[in-house]
Amino acid sequence: MSFLNIDSVKERTFDAIVIGSGISGGWAAKELTGKGLRTLVLERGRDVKHVIDYPTTMMQPWEFAHLGQLSQEYRDANPVASRCYANREDASHFFVKDADHPYVQEKPFDWIRGYQVGGKSLMWARGTQRWSNYDFEGPARDGFAVEWPIGYDDIAPWYSYVEKFAGISGNKDGLAQLPDGEFLPPHEQSCIEKHFSEQMATKYNGTRPVIIGRCAHLTKPQPIHLQQGRGQCQNRSICQRGCPYGGYFSSNSSTLPWAAKTGKLTLRPDSVVHSIIFDEKKGKATGVRVIDANTKQMTEYYARIMFVNAACLNSNLILLNSTSNRFPNGLGNDNGLLGKYVAFHNFRTTISAEHDGFQDTTTDGIRPNGSYIPRFRNVFKQETDFLRGYAAGFGGSRAMDVDTSGMGEDLKASLMQPKYGNWRVSSHMMGETIPKDSNYVALDSNLKDAWGIPQLKISVGYDDNDEKMIRDFHEQMTEMLTVSGFKNIQTHDKPDKAPGLDIHEMGGVRMGKDPKTSLLNKWNQLHSCKNVFVTDGACMTSTSTQNPSLTFMAITARAADYAVKEFKKGNL
Predict the structure, then answer these.
(1) CA–CA distance, 43 with 32 (Å, rounded to integer)
(2) In the chain, is it the N or the C terminus that has fewer CB atoms within a 10 Å radius of its CB?
């Protein structure tokens, strides 16, 4: 019988374990297996195979029972999940239902999750911008959070590395606050976007650029993408369904199949990670405890390296729940900061306007991307009464105006002769929020989920800095639209819109130089448990204004490269 136990342990022992299969977990799997490590990837959700498990991807609008809209029954049962912009009838199967994994809202927070192989990489918005020195140096310069242990020069080669593999379209714009990358051909701006861009270049002397967005779409696949089995983006703009062409980057179409080709990958879906095992004699983590999502049976898996990539808040949850005599308050939590300094992007407000020019032009076709306004406030010096700044999305279109006032033959004739209205544009703010110890997550002391794990308690909200930033966005964008000839300018703010719908939560396990004020070092290792790496949103020291996923990818590839080198030296 003892030999059976030994064999069982061997079968459950790997070189590395990756917790989570989303954007950062997929990259960890690719890098670790590609460098020769036998790697187990644990995903709490069901398996989703590329192409095979995208059930709605080829459906036509009339084939949906509610024409693509969520049913009222679904909305009533899922008030949080149904508020997400990407959660429609064609993609609701990729979103966690509210009742399936409850959490405690000390302050209102809309926690959007995707529990399946590939995680949220299947339905993300695909915006991919590099950070600049101004972003990494922000905390030290502006006196908030703690100093980043890395800078742009440390991460720049890894940005290039992941951009080439993932496939990023964009234009080389030569902006100091938004470094150029390794780009595929860009999408084209519409005439109204070009007009606004040209007006900004003239009226503000190039200090407020409006550029085509940078996004993870294969506008012109390169050999490395064809080797992955991916094809050109078809501009269908139904990306949230899963792309059978592999036209946009996802773990399912790219990193996980690449890792599988090495023969070093073991992928285990339906595996809810309970906690990380810490061996006090060895002074390091030795494995993870996993609960089968369906049977609720617990199994332990072992490895010399652990990568925690469960997505920001779940990564915090797992570490908080990984207690031992050495770490009674959570793995690596010697300073009591685990779960604190959570931040996010403020998407609460928008602005809209009309333009009565370009009447001879309208939109033709579909484009899975929009224009982008990089941060222009407080970039090179402090110039406002709030810290940091905001970026913004920008786009426009012409809608059909149909006269429905008549009856009978008159109504029929009107419906058959629709007319285009004015160009309408809108812009949404993506503001950087300041990490604070009052914005935190913790384990609830009483409530448990279906797997017996404490529910996550979330206390994250806006502050006065966010309110000042919103007012400035309204003022600056109103001025910018006015001088560009727009009219009917309207601001839209929703003070009751809870954080979370941006799906850009970051922090709680932040990087830093000092173990007294941070959890991770410059290689994303826990200061006090060197064989555990955290490279998803939880590791972020600050949030910048750029979409974060590209930075998660680059940080993960960099950390995995270091981890493998240390592993082969026998240091882990």
Answers:
(1) 17
(2) N
